[in-house]
Design brief:
nine-stranded antiparallel beta sheet, mainly beta, Maltoporin, Chain A, two-stranded antiparallel ribbon
C-alpha cells in the first residue's frame, strides 16, 4: 500500500473564520472485496485499487451569536484491476455473468466501488441567543451525497440516487441547565435512502434493503432534579 496526504489549516479575521483543506491518494494491492452472490458471499481479489480526493471544511462566526459552516469532498474511487468481482443474482439467473475469473465472477476493472459517492457536501447554521432566564438555540444541517452503489457487485438496481437531507432543531434551555425543551426534525426532505441492499436468496430481481429513517419530527423535554 502506498499513501500520502497533504493538508492545510488556516485561520482568518482574528480567528472568526477557519478553512481546512486536505488532498490525499492511496494505492492498494491485493485488496479482498466481499460481495453477496444471492446464496453466499463472494470474496474477490482486486489486484489494484486507487482512492484519491480532496476535502474542504470551513467555519465562519458571522456574529457572536451566529456561526455558519460547511464541507465538500470529492472522491475518486476506482478499481484499477478487479477481474474476480462477484456477479449479481440477476446476471447469474439470466446467464449474462461473464465468469471472467471463475464461475459467478465478472471484471470490474476501471469501475467505481460501492459506497463511494463522487461528491459529498454539507452546510450548517447555528444561532444562539441568551435571554435573562433561558438560552435559545436554532440549528440546521443540510447534507448532500452523490449517487453510489449499495452492493459490491455494482448492480444498477441497487444504485442509491443522489439526495439532500435537512435536519433542524429549535431549543430553549434554562441558564442553570435544569430544564430543556427541543423541537426537532430529521430528514425533513423525506428522502428514501438505504444503508445497504443485496439480492434476495434464490430470487432474481428481488432485493433486500436496509432503509434509513424517513421524515421524523417531534418535541422532547428534560428536567434535571
Amino acid at each position: 500500500m502506498t499513501a500520502w496526504e497533504l493538508g492545510v489549516k488556516q485561520d482568518f479575521m482574528d480567528g472568526r473564520a477557519r478553512v481546512a483543506t486536505a488532498i490525499y491518494r492511496s494505492e492498494l494491492e491485493d485488496l479482498q472485496v466481499t460481495s453477496w452472490g444471492g446464496t453466499s458471499f463472494v470474496v474477490g481479489n482486486a489486484a489494484e485499487l486507487t482512492v484519491q480526493g480532496i476535502e474542504i471544511e470551513a467555519q465562519f462566526a458571522a456574529t457572536d451569536a451566529l456561526e455558519i459552516g460547511g464541507s465538500y469532498a470529492y472522491l475518486d474511487h476506482e478499481f484499477d484491476s478487479y477481474p474476480g468481482a462477484g456477479c449479481s443474482v440477476v446476471e447469474i439467473g439470466l446467464g449474462t455473468c461473464p465468469n471472467s475469473s471463475g464461475e459467478g465472477t465478472k471484471d470490474l476493472s476501471g469501475e467505481r466501488g460501492a459506497f463511494a459517492p463522487e461528491h459529498s457536501a454539507s452546510l450548517y447554521l447555528d444561532y444562539n441567543h441568551a435571554f435573562d432566564w433561558a438560552e435559545f438555540n436554532f440549528h440546521v444541517d443540510v447534507n448532500y451525497k452523490d449517487e453510489f452503489f449499495l452492493d459490491g457487485d455494482l448492480d444498477e438496481n441497487v444504485l442509491q440516487d443522489s439526495y439532500t437531507k435537512v435536519d433542524a432543531s429549535i431549543s430553549l434551555m434554562s441558564l442553570e441547565g435544569t430544564w430543556e425543551v427541543v423541537l426537532y426534525g430529521r430528514n425533513l426532505t423525506d428522502e428514501t435512502t438505504y444503508t445497504a441492499s443485496v439480492d434476495a436468496p434464490l430470487s432474481p430481481g428481488v432485493y433486500i434493503g436496509w432503509v434509513e429513517e424517513p421524515r421524523v419530527y417531534g418535541i422532547s423535554a428534560a428536567y434535571n432534579f
